[in-house]
């Protein structure tokens, strides 16, 4: 284990390598070794395919997501228009409104740019 490697999201030193990815057991964040420096340096938000996201983009949800504290589900394929990028410590870096559900935050790893 590389003692210099830390989780880019929570700063934990308890990370391990799984195939080509690094994994943080504390916050469940996964990243490639080069991504850690890149995400810290620029604050760039990327979708599941690696496309850079910006305010006002339209994205599509890539899998069914349960809404915490509710019985609602955001279905895979749902299009979300006019996203706003936010700096959230819990990993939910997209603020948006979804038809039929309302305002909520999403993680960029569960969306793809349309």
From TrEMBL:
It holds the Pfam family YjdM. Residues 45-114 form the Protein YjdM C-terminal domain. InterPro entries: YjdM (IPR004624), YjdM_C (IPR013988), YjdM_N (IPR013987). Residues 6-32 form the Protein YjdM N-terminal domain. It comes from the Bacteria. Belongs to the YjdM family. PANTHER family: PROTEIN YJDM (PTHR30305:SF3), PROTEIN YJDM-RELATED (PTHR30305). This is Zn-ribbon-containing protein involved in phosphonate metabolism, PhnA-like protein. The lineage of its organism: Bacteria, Pseudomonadati, Pseudomonadota, Alphaproteobacteria, Rhodospirillales.
């Amino acid at each position: 284990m590389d003692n210099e490697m830390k989780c880019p999201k929570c700063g934990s030193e308890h990370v391990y390598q799984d195939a080509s990815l690094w994994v943080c057991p504390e916050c469940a964040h996964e990243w490639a070794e080069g991504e850690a420096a890149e995400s810290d340096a620029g604050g760039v938000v990327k979708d599941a395919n690696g496309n850079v996201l910006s305010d006002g983009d339209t994205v599509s949800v890539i899998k069914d997501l349960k809404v915490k504290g509710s019985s609602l589900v955001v279905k895979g394929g749902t299009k979300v228009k006019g996203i706003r990028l936010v700096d959230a410590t819990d990993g939910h870096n997209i603020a948006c409104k979804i038809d039929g559900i309302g305002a909520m935050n999403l993680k960029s790893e569960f969306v793809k740019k349309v």
